[in-house]
Amino acid sequence: MGLIEDAKRGIVTEEMKIVAEKEGVTEDFVRRGVAEGHITIPVSPYREIKICGIGEGLRTKVNASIGTSTDFVDIDMEIEKARQAELAGADTLMELSTGGDFLEIRRRVIEATTLSVGSVPLYQAFIEAAQKKGGVVFMDPDDLFRITAEQAKLGTNFMAIHTGINLETMKRLQNQGRHGGLVSRGGAFMTAWMLHNEQENPLYAEFDYLLEILKEHEVTLSFGNGMRAGAVHDATDRAQLQELIINAELADKANDFGVQTIIEGPGHIPLDEIQANVVVQKRVTNRKPFYMLGPLVTDIAPGYDDRVAAIGASLSSAYGADFICYVTPAEHLALPTPEEVYEGVMSSRIAAHVGDMIKLKKRGDDLEMGHARRDLDWDRQFAVAMNPERAKKIRDERMPADTDGCTMCGDYCALKIVNKNFNF
Amino acid sequence: MGLIEDAKRGIVTEEMKIVAEKEGVTEDFVRRGVAEGHITIPVSPYREIKICGIGEGLRTKVNASIGTSTDFVDIDMEIEKARQAELAGADTLMELSTGGDFLEIRRRVIEATTLSVGSVPLYQAFIEAAQKKGGVVFMDPDDLFRITAEQAKLGTNFMAIHTGINLETMKRLQNQGRHGGLVSRGGAFMTAWMLHNEQENPLYAEFDYLLEILKEHEVTLSFGNGMRAGAVHDATDRAQLQELIINAELADKANDFGVQTIIEGPGHIPLDEIQANVVVQKRVTNRKPFYMLGPLVTDIAPGYDDRVAAIGASLSSAYGADFICYVTPAEHLALPTPEEVYEGVMSSRIAAHVGDMIKLKKRGDDLEMGHARRDLDWDRQFAVAMNPERAKKIRDERMPADTDGCTMCGDYCALKIVNKNFNF
C-alpha cells in the first residue's frame, strides 16, 4: 500500500515521522498533508534514501539536475556532479542523461547518492527510437511504458512525465505562436510525435495505465511542464495555462488513485508575473506541491543564470512554491561542470531560504547571525553561515591585523566604535 | 548657477539633453524632473564625466564602492578596482578609503575613471582626528566642513553626508535597541562624537552652512543612511524611519536652495518589507531619487552577498528605487578584490535590469534574446547578452559537435526538433 492510502487511513508511517521531525511540524500535519495531496514524500521500494518531504508548510526544497548529453558522456563526471550537488546541499537530484548508456549511467549515479532521484523516462524512449528506428517520431508507446517501469525498478523516486501536452494544449500553442519557441525537450519530443503520428499523447490517452505502473513501483508523479516559456515574453501564456489545467485534472485523479504528485511550473517569468503563477498553480491544482523551474526573470544574462534564477526563486518560494529546480551559470550555453552544479545549488539554496523567511517565518538563523555580527563573534558567524567554508576562505585570505574586525573597515569598524558607546 | 535653478527657469542644459538622449525620454521630462527634485544629475565644475541621470523614469543606476582600509592600502589595486567597476558597467563609483593618504588616493582614482565619483567626507575628518588627536570624538566640525570643500574641488560629484543622525534619531535608537547594532561607519563615528561631546550633529545643526559649500562646488548631496539596519531583524525600525524623516525634511530644503539630492536607504531588509521601504521613502521625500544599499534579504549567506543583494535590489528597483549600491561577495568578510568588484557590479546590473523590466517596461533586449534563442542564432544571443564575453567563454569551452545547438542537449535540442514542426 502507498503513503496516500496509509495517510487516509490515519496511519503515520516512518517516512511521515521523519519528515515531521526534520521540519519541526506535527506528525499529524504531515499525515493530513499527504492524504490531501498537499505534501509529497518521494520513496521507492527499491532503495533507501534520505527522506525528504515536499509541499505546504515544509521548507522549500532544491533539486539539482545533472546528466550527459550526446556531446559529453563521462559517467565519472556525472558522479562527481551528483557528489557536488549533495555537498552543496541539494535535496533531490534529477538524472537527465540523453547520451551514452542510459541504464548504466543512472544505475551508477543512483548508487552514488543518498538523495531522492528523479528521471524523465520519455527521454530514453524517444532517443532509443531515434537511434534504433531513425527518428523520435517512431517511438512506440509500449516502449515508453516499459522504460517507465524499468527506470522505477532502479530505485527512481520521482518521474517528470509530460501528460499535459495533449491535442488541446497543442492547439493553444499553434493558435497563439511563441517568441521563444518550445524549449522543453520532453515537450518537443512529444509534440513532434503527435504531429507526425496524428495521435493523442499516449501519456494522456493511457493515463490510467501510467498510474498503474507508477503505483506498483511507488513512484511519485511529477507532472512535466512541456509548455513552459523559454523566454519572458512567453510567460503565463495560454499554452502554458492550458497544460497546467490538464495536469491539474490528472493530478487529482492520481491522488485519488494513490499516486503521489508534484506539479512542475515555468520557466522564464518576469518579476511581476511570479505571484500570479504561484497563486493560479496552487489554486487549480488544489494545493499540490509546486515545483518551480527557476524561474528566470530576465533572458539577457547568460553566464549568470543561477543568480537570475535565485531572484525568481526567492519570490516564488515566498509566494508558496514548494520545490525549486536549480539553474547553473552554464544554462543556455553548455552542459554544466561539477563546479557549476555546486554554484547552482548554492544560489538556489539561498533563494529557498529567502522564500522560507517569508513563507514559514524561518528567521532564527538570521537573528543568530545578526547577534554574532554585532558581537564580532566570527566562530558563531561561520557556524550559522550557509557555506561556512566559503565565508572562512574569503576572510582568511585577507586576515586583518586586529582579528576582531575584518579588512573591510580595519580600525574603523562601526561595530567596535559603537559597542563602546551603546549597550545593545 | 546650478542645474535646479536652470531647470526651474525652463532652461534645458547640456547635461539634461545628454540624459534625455541616453534614456529615450524628452528633454522637458528631464528638465521638470530636475526642477522638482525627482531627477538628479551629478556634475562638477572641476571635472568632465560621463553624465548620468538618477531618478524617476530613468534606468536604474548601479554604484560600485571601492577604497582602502587600514589593513590594505594599495593605490594601484584601487585603480584596478575602479577600472573593473567601469568595465563591468557601473554607472558611478564611490571612493571610500579609510587608510593611507586620502587626498592622493582619491586624486588618482578620480583621474583613472570617467564615472561620476562619490565620497564620504566625514570619514577623512574623523580618521584624521583619530590619527592626530587620538580619537574620533575629538573631530573639529570646522575640519569636517573644510574637508568637504577640499574633496569637492577634487572633482567629487556626490557626497554621502550623514545629516539625519541627530539627537532625535539617537534617542529612537537608544529607546529601541538593536539586534545587529549600528553598522554604518559614518553613523558610528557621528553617534560616538555626539555622545562624547554631548552636542548636536554639526551636519544637522549647521545644515545651511553645509548647503552653501555644496552649492558653491555644485556637489550633489546624497543623504547618508547612518541608521540603516545591519541585520534583517532591524529592518524598517523606528531609528531608521526617524532618520529618513529628518533627511526628507532637509532634502526639501536642499532642493529649494538649489542643491541636487539623493536619499540613501537600507541595508538589510527581508523580502516582504522591501515594497514598504520604497513606498515610504518615495512618499516622505516627495519622490527624491532613492539610493538603495543592497538590500540584503538574508544575513546567513556571507560569501554570496552579491547574489543576496541582487534579489533585494531586483525588487526594490521594480518598486521604484532609482539607484542601487552594489554588494560584493566579500561583504561582511573582507575588503573586496578587483575580481569581486567586477562580480558585484554584474550582480547589481542584473538586478537593475530586472527592476527596469517592471518599472520602465524595458523588455526589448529580452525579446531580442528570446527570438535569437529560438532561431539558434548565437551571434545575436551574444550581442544582446549583458556580458557577451562571459557567455561566449562558457559556450566555447564546451563547443558542441553540431554548432547550431549547445552541449546541454546536444542532438536533442528542443528548439531544433520543434522548429522542424512548428512555424513560429
TrEMBL record, chains A, B:
<feature type="binding site">
    <location>
        <position position="123"/>
    </location>
    <ligand>
        <name>substrate</name>
    </ligand>
</feature>
<keyword id="KW-0004">4Fe-4S</keyword>
<dbReference type="InterPro" id="IPR037509">
    <property type="entry name" value="ThiC"/>
</dbReference>
<keyword id="KW-0411">Iron-sulfur</keyword>
<keyword id="KW-0862">Zinc</keyword>
<feature type="binding site">
    <location>
        <position position="413"/>
    </location>
    <ligand>
        <name>[4Fe-4S] cluster</name>
    </ligand>
</feature>
<feature type="binding site">
    <location>
        <position position="409"/>
    </location>
    <ligand>
        <name>[4Fe-4S] cluster</name>
    </ligand>
</feature>
<dbReference type="InterPro" id="IPR038521">
    <property type="entry name" value="ThiC/Bza_core_dom"/>
</dbReference>
<dbReference type="Pfam" id="PF01964">
    <property type="entry name" value="ThiC_Rad_SAM"/>
</dbReference>
<feature type="binding site">
    <location>
        <position position="406"/>
    </location>
    <ligand>
        <name>[4Fe-4S] cluster</name>
    </ligand>
</feature>
<feature type="binding site">
    <location>
        <begin position="184"/>
        <end position="186"/>
    </location>
    <ligand>
        <name>substrate</name>
    </ligand>
</feature>
<keyword id="KW-0784">Thiamine biosynthesis</keyword>
<comment type="function">
    <text>Catalyzes the synthesis of the hydroxymethylpyrimidine phosphate (HMP-P) moiety of thiamine from aminoimidazole ribotide (AIR) in a radical S-adenosyl-L-methionine (SAM)-dependent reaction.</text>
</comment>
<keyword id="KW-0456">Lyase</keyword>
<dbReference type="GO" id="GO:0009228">
    <property type="term" value="P:thiamine biosynthetic process"/>
</dbReference>
<feature type="binding site">
    <location>
        <position position="94"/>
    </location>
    <ligand>
        <name>substrate</name>
    </ligand>
</feature>
<feature type="binding site">
    <location>
        <position position="162"/>
    </location>
    <ligand>
        <name>substrate</name>
    </ligand>
</feature>
<feature type="binding site">
    <location>
        <position position="264"/>
    </location>
    <ligand>
        <name>substrate</name>
    </ligand>
</feature>
<feature type="binding site">
    <location>
        <position position="268"/>
    </location>
    <ligand>
        <name>Zn(2+)</name>
    </ligand>
</feature>
<feature type="binding site">
    <location>
        <position position="291"/>
    </location>
    <ligand>
        <name>substrate</name>
    </ligand>
</feature>
<dbReference type="InterPro" id="IPR002817">
    <property type="entry name" value="ThiC/BzaA/B"/>
</dbReference>
<feature type="binding site">
    <location>
        <begin position="225"/>
        <end position="228"/>
    </location>
    <ligand>
        <name>substrate</name>
    </ligand>
</feature>
<dbReference type="GO" id="GO:0070284">
    <property type="term" value="F:phosphomethylpyrimidine synthase activity"/>
</dbReference>
<dbReference type="GO" id="GO:0009229">
    <property type="term" value="P:thiamine diphosphate biosynthetic process"/>
</dbReference>
<keyword id="KW-0479">Metal-binding</keyword>
<comment type="similarity">
    <text>Belongs to the ThiC family.</text>
</comment>
<dbReference type="GO" id="GO:0008270">
    <property type="term" value="F:zinc ion binding"/>
</dbReference>
<keyword id="KW-0949">S-adenosyl-L-methionine</keyword>
<protein>
    <recommendedName>
        <fullName>Phosphomethylpyrimidine synthase</fullName>
        <ecNumber>4.1.99.17</ecNumber>
    </recommendedName>
</protein>
<dbReference type="GO" id="GO:0051539">
    <property type="term" value="F:4 iron, 4 sulfur cluster binding"/>
</dbReference>
<comment type="pathway">
    <text>Cofactor biosynthesis; thiamine diphosphate biosynthesis.</text>
</comment>
<feature type="binding site">
    <location>
        <position position="332"/>
    </location>
    <ligand>
        <name>Zn(2+)</name>
    </ligand>
</feature>
<keyword id="KW-0408">Iron</keyword>
